[in-house]
Write a structure and sequence with these properties.
Blueprint: H1 5-11, E1 18-22, E2 27-31, E3 34-40, E4 45-48, H2 52-61, E5 66-72, E6 75-81, H3 87-101, H4 104-113
Antiparallel strand pairs: 1-2, 2-3, 3-4, 4-6, 5-6
Pfam families: YjbR
Protein name: MmcQ/YjbR family DNA-binding protein
InterPro entries: YjbR-like_sf, YjbR/MT2646/Rv2570-like
Length: about 110
């Protein structure tokens, strides 16, 4: 169990049009210039966009894996500790964050290929 930073970055290759933007402290994950996540390599954590309901459920169910990052509008961002999550679950959460952000046609094309 657990995902390394390199394994996480490789997961992103399976999602269309993901761009990474480096800053001093984190890497922003974007699709068509809209953010859906952040990676903090130093702490081996990822922040992902989710619905507020999912944010609440994840944190309540496994606070050792997930923590509240912030809320913005109808979205609740969640911090994921990479060392404590299964790769398949993480990919599902990353894909959901991407789907919440990408344009509808891009999401539909992606889902049709899956």
């Amino acid at each position: 169990m657990g995902v390394t930073v390199d394994e996480f970055l490789k997961m992103l290759n399976d999602l269309p049009e993901v761009k990474l933007s480096d800053s001093d402290s984190w890497i922003a994950l974007k699709v068509r210039d809209k953010g859906f996540g952040y990676l903090w390599e130093r702490t081996e954590t990822v922040g992902l966009k989710a619905t507020i309901e999912e944010q609440i459920a994840l944190v309540a169910e496994r606070p050792e894996v997930f923590e509240v990052q912030f809320t913005a509008g109808r979205f609740g961002w969640v911090v994921v500790h990479l060392a404590k999550i299964d790769p398949e679950e993480l990919f599902e959460l990353v894909t959901e964050a991407w789907c919440l952000t990408a344009p509808k046609q891009l999401v539909e094309a992606f889902e049709a290929r899956r």
